[in-house]
Each structure stands twice: as structure tokens, then as C-alpha cells.
Specification:
Helices cover about 35% and strands about 30% of the residues. It is built from 13 helices and 14 strands. It is elongated, with a radius of gyration of 30 Å. The N and C termini lie far apart (about 85 Å).
Length: about 375
């Protein structure tokens, strides 16, 4: 393990002595990560080697003796195994302490997990070999990959922001989870999301403060000799003062659900907000407001009063119905060819679904919705047939 022992000492950080438990724990993780580079069984270090590295680093006024360090490592190792939500483990995310035994056979070196060794030996039995420690990532490579994929496919961040996030993920995972030049060929919106607005809205909701929102709309302006959509402040009801209730992700967008004194309950897309100001006035969310229930009863976030709607659908549309309304809505009258479904939703969201899948959907209730859709379709047909 000479490579570990020759590691540079690094800057002196002076954080107290080993009687201060967290100073010593922080130093153990820091030395294993920064000096020992102990990220696998092959690079694991013994208590003696770790004690020497901690002494050389000079970050503690009085580094622990080997025996004290061995006892502390044992406790930390067992905390990692059995107390996953332990405060110490949270402090040192993304690492957990792993322990192995090293043995040789001829020129070959083998490593055995200490936990596996314990399973086959009596309690209290000593392994007769020095324990070696290293840092193991608490997330698997596939879990880090999932994080990276979410960054790659999220439509509201720029390519430069994606690269920045991937660098952070690669650093935390200690191996490339996704190369910066890799592409998921995801849709990227021209206007990226202003994350400072998200922070302000989260802060206002957390502290129960009213907000003033300048809401935008796209208008065509000539740019470079061609009409180009530009997000500009809307001409009416701007700025709007709201009591913010919740942030909701629906239909591929972030929405702020809030109450306006004149306009009532509103759903405002965050990517269409030009600016947000958190006000000093207190806001109050009704105790009866349930963000999850509200989202489920408001498909595509059209505001309004939920109604009881009954649809009869062809079986081929089941996947689409589940995607649109969720799997928990009540299904009934199921046959090989059709099924019916009860919905308690805002009719505007139901109408969007029905218009898209007219060839496979029949409105059973209410009659007023049937009549409204029939009139809209006749009007559309008349306009299409005009010379």
C-alpha cells in the first residue's frame, strides 16, 4: 500500500482533536477519499495505514491512536450497515464505509466482505487478519445513470447547464455516469427555465408569503428578418398578486397553483413567468387543498370546477386513458371491446382528451358535455368545408 502512504498531505485544515467525534469522523472520510483514494477493495487501507495518513495530514490537533481509530471505524461500519438514515451517514453522502479482509493464494490476491465472513463464523470470533476499509458509493452505477438520464432528457435546461450538472454527478459518483458528449437526443425548449424563479416560489410557499407574478405570453416579433416568438409580459392582469398553494408537475410542465382575489384559483406555468417577487404579506392555503388530488382532477392543468364525467372507450385506448387520467380511476362495464370509466375532473381537460381520440370515445355523462362537443365539432366541420 505504498501508493497510499506517499499521497500528498494536502492543505492543513485544523478542525480540533479526536475527542470531538464529528471532527474525527469527517477526517476519516476526507482522508479515505482525498488521500488514500480508497474506493474499492483493491485500494482499501488498514487501520495502521489510515492512522498514519491522518497523522500526516495535520488536520487534527491530536489524531486518534490506532486502537481508538479501530473502535471508531467499527462503529461507523456497523452504522452504515444497519442505520441507513443515521445522521453520520447523511453527513458523508455519497459515501458509506465498507470493510474487507485480504488474503493471498500464490500470486493472487482476494478480498472478502467482512459482513460475509461474519455470516459463516461464530459471534466474537476474530478473523485473524487485519481489517481494511474503503469508501463505497451509496448509489449503484445504474442509479447514478438514472440521475444523469434525467438531466439529459429534461427539456427546460440548456446544453451548458446539462454539462454542468453531469460534471457534478460524475464527481459525486467517482466515475463517469454519462460522458459529457453523450446525447439522449431529447427535446430542448428554446427558452430554458429560470431556476431562480423556482427558488422564489418554493421560498414563498415554505414561508406562506404572497407573490407578485409578471406573467408572459408569446407574441411574434421580427428578428433577423423573420417573425419569431418572444415571451413578453401579458397585457392584462399584470402583475398578479397570488396566494401560492403548491408547485405541481403535470403534462410536462411546472405549474404554480395559487389563488387570485378576483380570478380565483389559477394554474400558471412557471416557464411563462417573466419575473416573481416574494411579498411580505402572509398567504394562507386552505386546509382542504390537496395538491395531489388537485393535480389528478385537473388534467393538463385547466382551471375550473371538477365535474362527474362518464366515458365509454374502446379497449385499444386503455394505455392512453391510464397515461392521461391515472390507473386509480374507477373502471366498469368491461368487455373485450370496450370499458367505461368514471372521472371527477375539470371538463376542459376531458374535452382535450375526447377531441384527440374521437374515434374511440363516447361521452355518456353529462348530457351538457355531449351537446357542447357536438356543437364544436359541427362548427369545425363547417369551417373545414368552406370554399
Amino acid at each position: 500500500m505504498s501508493g497510499h502512504m506517499d499521497a500528498p498531505a494536502g492543505p492543513v485544515r485544523r478542525r480540533g482533536d479526536y475527542h470531538k467525534k464529528y471532527d474525527t469522523i469527517d477526517e476519516i472520510y476526507w482522508v479515505l477519499e482525498q488521500q488514500a483514494k480508497a474506493f474499492s477493495p483493491e485500494t482499501a487501507v488498514s487501520v495502521k495505514e489510515l492512522a498514519a495518513l491522518m497523522k500526516r495530514s495535520g488536520n487534527l490537533d491530536k489524531p486518534p491512536a490506532e486502537r481508538t481509530l479501530s473502535e471508531l471505524l467499527g462503529r461507523l461500519y456497523r452504522d452504515n450497515l444497519y442505520v441507513c438514515s443515521d445522521t453520520t451517514a447523511d453527513r458523508h453522502f455519497p459515501w458509506k464505509l465498507e470493510c474487507v479482509l485480504q488474503r493471498t493464494s500464490g500470486n493472487a490476491v482476494f478480498y472478502q466482505s467482512y459482513a460475509q465472513w461474519e455470516q459463516h463464523h461464530a459471534e466474537g470470533q476474530s478473523p485473524n487478519r487485519a481489517l481494511r476499509y474503503y469508501l463505497q458509493n451509496v448509489l449503484t452505477p445504474s442509479e447514478w445513470k438514472l440521475f444523469a438520464d434525467m438531466v439529459q432528457v429534461y427539456p427546460y435546461i440548456s446544453s451548458e447547464q446539462s454539462k454542468k450538472f453531469l460534471r457534478v454527478l460524475n464527481r459525486m459518483s467517482h466515475h463517469p455516469v454519462l460522458l459529457l458528449e453523450d446525447q439522449r437526443y431529447a427535446f430542448r425548449r428554446d427558452g430554458t427555465l429560470d431556476f431562480s424563479i423556482l427558488e422564489q416560489l418554493d421560498d414563498a410557499i415554505r414561508r406562506s408569503r404572497r407573490v407578485s407574478v409578471v406573467y408572459g405570453e408569446y407574441r411574434l416579433q421580427t428578428h433577423g428578418g423573420r417573425p419569431t416568438p418572444r415571451l413578453l409580459p401579458r397585457t392584462e392582469y399584470n402583475p398578479m398578486q397570488l396566494e401560492p398553494y403548491a408547485m405541481v408537475w403535470s403534462n410536462g410542465y411546472y405549474y404554480l397553483v395559487g389563488h387570485h382575489q378576483k380570478l380565483g384559483l389559477m394554474n400558471l406555468r412557471v416557464d411563462r413567468m417573466v419575473s416573481v417577487t416574494v411579498l411580505a404579506e402572509q398567504a394562507k392555503r386552505p386546509p382542504s387543498f390537496d395538491p395531489t388530488r388537485y393535480r389528478d382532477s385537473t388534467p393538463v392543468m385547466y382551471a375550473g370546477v371538477p365535474e362527474h364525467i362518464v366515458l365509454r372507450c374502446r379497449t385499444k385506448l386503455l394505455n392512453v386513458v391510464v397515461d392521461f387520467f391515472g390507473a386509480s380511476v374507477p373502471f366498469f362495464d368491461v368487455t373485450d371491446d370496450h370499458f367505461s370509466v368514471h372521472l371527477h375532473i375539470v371538463s376542459a381537460g376531458a374535452k382535450l382528451f375526447i377531441r384527440q381520440y374521437l374515434d374511440g370515445v363516447e361521452v355518456l355523462e353529462p348530457a351538457s358535455l355531449r351537446a357542447e362537443l357536438a356543437w364544436e365539432l359541427r362548427d369545425a366541420a363547417a369551417r373545414l368545408e368552406e370554399d
